[in-house]
Amino acid sequence: MARSTCRLCGECDIGCNDGAKNTLDFNYLSEAKRLGADLRHLSEVRRFRKQSDGKFNIEYVRHKPGGNSSSATPGEATADRLILAAGTFGSTYLLLANRGSFPGISRALGTRYSGNGDLLSFILRSDRDINPNFGPVITSAIRVEDDGAAGGFYVEEGGYPAFLSWLVDTAADLPSFPLRAARFGKNAFMRLIGRDPDTDLGHEISELIGPAALSRHSLPLLSMGRDTPSGKMWLDGKSLQCDWSVDQSREYYARVQATGKKIAEALNADYDDNPAFRYFEQVLTAHPLGGCPMGRNPGEGVVDSYGAVFGVPGLYVTDGSILPGPVGPNPALTIAALADRAAERIAAYRPGQE
Ligand SMILES: Cc1cc2nc3c(=O)[nH]c(=O)nc-3n(C[C@H](O)[C@H](O)[C@H](O)COP(=O)(O)OP(=O)(O)OC[C@H]3O[C@@H](n4cnc5c(N)ncnc54)[C@H](O)[C@@H]3O)c2cc1C
Ligand code: SF4
């Protein structure tokens, strides 16, 4: 499909609306459709089991755009090979929820969860003009090697859309906001009644927003690396639960924080962690991994290195859930490479073949 040029708008975090990025709908999915695949969008898989003829029976619901689960309609499919690619939480949830139909699945299911060592922190009030709203998010990285006791990591710069800067600056400069809003309101009123035809709306809006001092001189840091994959996932009724504690990764996080502080010092700025980590030691992650970890045998993992589920011929998992530990850098490309590697093996599989 045609691709457009990047507008340098810094909106990558919320999805590129300009078609300047590669996503599955632009590459693998369009190609699959071209080759005749039946793509059933808005469809959520709920249950699956093996039939007596060895094929998989899959039950799903088809959601209506904007509808709720009561407006969803049921659907069904059969397949001789079933590939779960619902992500770390989705695939782990589906295997846990359908475990009753596959009693031989490894006890490793739900283990080796990791947040890929993510830490969101902030460089604040630098004396330099940083302007995180310009250009794509993440254009550079500092790599810090393993030090023997703790895993290595990357520190990357996180840009964000301009509208978030407005929110940040308005919140930071809240005490003077009513005055600025009143001034803007007065000017708007004068214009309305024709007393002030000499308008400079751009200047007035910029006065309303304020000097943008905090956002122009601050920057989120996105760190990620090799924490300890000590988390667990399990089902509580119908809900997936996930428990991971910083306890076994303290040295790792201490090194990440120390590096962030050095960057702040170099930029003559303050350093701060996000409040969830600072007050509650809770990690916010965009990179959850594990839950259906790969291993050399069923005692060690749920799948082999091609995503084949031990003990269930024809069933595969090909997403971030099969990584038995943190990747280190942003993991999407590694996950895609693993899935691509598994695809050839899966395409060659026929029922009855072990
Ligand atoms: C804001 C944000 C920014 C990120 N930026 C980067 C980055 O710059 N670089 C990078 O490497 N990584 C980035 N990541 C991480 C990256 O997106 C993930 O690591 C990657 O997409 C995981 O791939 P996956 O195939 O495991 O799962 P996903 O990409 O999550 O795919 C799982 C799919 O399964 C679907 N699904 C779930 N349950 C069901 C069900 N029951 N039935 C049917 N479908 C289902 C989901 O809707 C989803 O489409 C970012 C993540 C976030 C949230
Ligand atoms: S900066 Fe990001 S969101 Fe904006 S056009 Fe470029 S790739 Fe897309």
Chain-wise SSE layout:
Elements lengths: L27 H7 L8 E8 L5 E7 L10 E7 L2 E3 L2 H11 L13 E4 L4 E6 L16 E4 L8 E5 L4 H11 L4 H16 L8 H9 L3 H4 L2 E7 L6 E5 L2 E5 L6 H17 L3 E4 L1 H6 L8 E3 L23 E3 L14 H17 L6
Parallel strand pairs: 4-14
Antiparallel strand pairs: 1-2, 2-3, 5-13, 6-9, 6-12, 7-8, 8-9, 10-11
Helix pairs in contact: 4-5
The protein binds flavin-adenine dinucleotide (FAD) and iron/sulfur cluster.
The site of flavin-adenine dinucleotide has 19 residues, from strand 1, helix 2 and helix 9.
Describe the structure.
This protein is of the alpha+beta class and 354 residues long. The chain has 3 domains: 12-113 and 288-348, FAD/NAD(P)-binding domain (3-Layer(bba) Sandwich); 117-163 and 221-229 and 242-280, no CATH class; 174-210, no CATH class. The chain contains 9 helices and 14 strands. The strands form 5 sheets. It has a 5-stranded antiparallel beta sheet with strand order 7-8-9-6-12. A 3-stranded antiparallel beta sheet has the order 1-2-3, with no helix packed on it. A hairpin with a 2-residue loop joins β10 and β11. It is globular, with a radius of gyration of 25 Å. The mean pLDDT is 90. The structure holds flavin-adenine dinucleotide and iron/sulfur cluster. Flavin-adenine dinucleotide is lined by residues 13, 44-45, 85-88, 90, 94, 138, 286-287, 319-320, 330-333, 335.
